[in-house]
Amino acid sequence: RARLVLALQVKNKAPAEVQITAEQLLREAKERELELLPPPPQQKITDVEELNDYKLRKRKTFEDNIRKNRTVISNWIKYAQWEESLKEIQRARSIYERALDVDYRNVTLWLKYAEMEMKNRQVNHARNIWDRAITTLPRVNQFWYKYTYMEEMLGNVAGSRQVFERWMEWQPEEQAWHSYINFELRYKEVDRARSIYERYILFKASAELVLVHPDVKNWIKYARFEEKHSYFAHARKVYERAVEFFGEEHMDEHLYVAFAKFEENQKEFERVRVIYKYALDRIPKQDAQNLFKNYTIFEKKFGDRRGIEDIIVSKRRFQYEEEVKANPHNYDAWFDYLRLVESDTDDETVREVYERAIANVPPIQEKRHWKRYIYLWINYALYEELEAKASKRTRQVYQACLELLPHKKFTFAKMWLLYAQFEIRQKNLPLARRALGTSIGKCPKTKLFKGYIELELQLREFDRCRKLYEKFLEFAPENCTSWIKFAELETILGDIDRARAIYELAISQPRLDMPEVLWKSYIDFEIEQEEYEKTRSLYRRLLQRTQHVKVWISLAQFELSVGQEERLLHCRQVYEEANKAMRSCEEKEERVMLLESWRSFEDEFGTSATKERIDKLMPEKIKKRRKLQAEDGSDAGWEEYYDYIFPEDTANQPNLKLLAMAKLWKKQQQESEAAAMDPDKDVDESQT
């Protein structure tokens, strides 16, 4: 009932705004308790009974604590140290022994026990404790260090050495061996230290070789120990044994750097070079950066220019090797690598690198992927011919390359031509002709025909040239340059009719790549032969095909140049005819070009009447605007352009009249706008 009443009275059950945690309550209670507790009173012991009573209470307290929790070693140590402070050594020993029975693996317990004995000058007891400690826990290095240090401080060198020997049988860590070595060196026992180093690196147990610490750094320390004590032959022997021990499978650059520096200190510079080169040839390049660096420094100090260059070349070679290893199809890297090896290595090495390079054939049979690759073969062949002077190998390189190329898809004319030129240099003309003939049969190309024809021209084999031109024109009848060269060849040989027939055959082809060049060459040919009637006929035939203004101007200039008395008349007639023919031409600029050429002619050779006439024919240049449209058909604004109005075109006359009326209307519009803006001015002007 009371609870029910209390629950009815507490209506607001929401949490209070200020919350107090249990931690805060405990902290405040502790603080208040400390403030209220008075300091303990100081006790003074005045007689033996009080002292014995105090000892009894204290021992009872320690025993109670131990009884509560025997595994808390700190209670045992405090108990023993308290007994030690009372000079109760026997009791302290008893406590330590009891504690060791509880936990003999506790390192601190052994250390405190031994320190107590040493502090109280109980040497034999301390030795006994250390012996028990290292026997029980032989892997705790601290016991061994303390034990050997104690024996050495007591002057018992033999005893300390004996402890070290017992320790070494356990094959401890490196620092233990160094401590033993330093101990022997402190007493000038170099031979003993050497024997320790031997055991340190290679430990013999029961007639078997056990590797204790065969690291490179330990071999180096051993050699430096010998060097420090001036046993240079022993030091060299140690380095040589280390090199032999690790072999070529586990080579380490630090060993060779240390070996080289030792020989450098002994002024054995040739041995240093041999060591560095031996290591650089066998250690992977990515693991030999420090070796490269030290070798470079050595050569700068003691070497000549050649030695320094060798180092730089080796370093660059390593860089190129990494590049081509990362991407074998990086042909630019191969080119740089080959340029490097060609400058400083023998022929076999260069050939090996070339073979590695050309083995990386492009994976796709598309010509654009082969354009850089083919130059590897070209450079290889040129190297064999020019540098190695091996013509047989050069021929093999060319033939291997030509067999590799997929001629059905594409070929490289330069490769065929280079091979043919090589055979000619070797005075083997049949092979050169066979190679070029094979190329034309397998994969005819314009460049191959031109190269073959040029070769036969140099050899003055004109009949072969004629046959090649015939084959060439069967392959590419639209090539105007070939027709022209063929006709020029016949002209040089004096066969004019044959040359003319070639020109006639050429201009009759249905498709030509540069017909204007061909016609010009044919016309020039007839002019050189002074066949003016045939030249006029050619011009007329050309004008039947095209009404280009340049053809008319060329014809007029021809008439002006060949005639004597009637040349001016013929030239003027050509201009008249051209002007009539071009009235229907849509390109007004060409007509203007013709009239300007005609006016230049009249200015030089014409009379005042002809000059006046040509001036009347010249067009009027006017500016116009036209509407522009974008690609999507939208309005793109207006564009200004120039148009020409020719007086002869009667169809344009109404347009001219309309244009004049438009100009007059615009002028009147401007005047009316000016009068509307300033009416007072008009009144004043009327009054005046």
UniProtKB/TrEMBL annotation:
Its main location: nucleus. It holds the Pfam family HAT_Syf1_CNRKL1_C. GO terms for cellular component: nuclear speck; post-mRNA release spliceosomal complex; precatalytic spliceosome; Prp19 complex; U2-type catalytic step 2 spliceosome. The keyword Glycoprotein does not apply. Keywords: mRNA processing, mRNA splicing, Nucleus, Phosphoprotein, Repeat, Spliceosome. Coiled coil: none annotated. Residues 669-688 are annotated as: Disordered. One of its GO terms (biological process) is spliceosomal complex assembly. It is found in: Nucleus speckle. The keyword Phosphoprotein applies. It comes from the Eukaryota. Residues 74-304, 387-546 form the Pre-mRNA-splicing factor Syf1/CRNKL1-like C-terminal HAT-repeats domain. Belongs to the crooked-neck family. Involved in pre-mRNA splicing process. As a component of the minor spliceosome, involved in the splicing of U12-type introns in pre-mRNAs. This is Crooked neck-like protein 1. It comes from Sylvia borin. The gene is Crnkl1.
